[in-house]
Amino acid sequence: MKNDAYGRLRLFASNNTGSVAVVGALMASVIVGSGALAVQQALVLQTERALQASTEMAALAGAQDLGESTDAAVATAISYAAKNPVAGQTVTAVSGYPRAVCLTSTNISCGSVGANAIVVKQQIVMPLVLGKYFGVTSKTMVATATASAQGGAGKAVDVMFVLDTTRSMTNTDARCSVSGASRLACAEAGVRKLLLAANPSLVRAGLAIFPPVKTATDAARNYDCSSATPAIAKYNATSPIYTILGLSSDYKSSPGATSLNTASNMVRAVGGVSGCPGLQAIGGVGTYFADAISAAQTELQIHGRTEAQKVIVFLSDGDAGASSSNVGTSKYANQCHQGIAAAQNAAASGTWVYSAAYGAANSGGCSTDNPAISPCATMQQIASAAEKFFPDTGATSVSCTSTINSASDVIGIFSAIGTSLSATSPRLILNSTS
Fold first, then answer.
1. In this structure, are 399 and 251 located in the same domain?
2. Count of alpha carbons within 13 Å of 331, Cβ hemisphere only?
């Protein structure tokens, strides 16, 4: 009996194929399961990082538009997040976000919009394939990012100046801080002040005028320092030239330069070189500015940098009303409203449009428009936002004012616009910033 039991034990020990298979299957399950858990955990971490990155970029995008309004900033943040989803996941905004806030510790003005930062909070409810084995079927991830409107590196800007060179610009401006200066000379001094404060490594500038000129040679006579008079074209001429200088950064030799580059055609055009007449206000064909604004926008679209904020700085008294013989019958009616439409088209493409209302009247003017509109209201509506409307408040006789911006003369207007353009870019800050 004892020998039989011993034999059966030896037989079992020698025939262990089945037991090895069971153990192997168990080990394989453990290995596969561990691998699957590792893959799932890696996917969770990857998704969390992607959600945080998406949230931070949405906050930065929104902060760029805080100068427009809090609604614009929030809409931009939402739009950016929608256009940059986390792959394979549904991202939703946490209730109450994005939210524009006014933080006191950053020492950045909250301005007329009442905010200097934006907080974005987003979440993902991620299904967990293996979670059912552990009683957890999903994981909720939340990411928060706060971006200040300013504080980062300066932004790239491409700016087109659109200046009035009609005959009235030869009149003396008694309000200009440059004694005895004509209206055009005062405007040129304002442009020079803006350029002197600008960083040429970030800001490029170009120039358009109205009325237009006939040829490229006539355009050059506004900056080649010759005594020749440019030939003015009617607004309904074939291929009139509005843009006399394309975008360039040669107005200063370096960011730290304390004077403008006298070899620059831009500097010459705006009276920055002694003995060089610069822009010439010939006039003679009335005032019509819609096509000049469109020409500036075309220059920005064709030659503007992809990464740069596109800007138009438009200077006028806002009173368009050229005769039909000079503008043509198709463009005669509603000339001020046409200028507004041209500016709004530019703004719809993302261009910032600054309006420098130079002695704009608060009544009368815009004689071809129905419904009636004043030159002041025209300039207000040309600006792409209330913050970008700059009347010269020294012109008390015309009562065109802004509740946001105040500058006693046109030089002060350009100085204020320059400060706006040189503002630093948005940056991420700690969510705990108060």
1. yes
2. 23
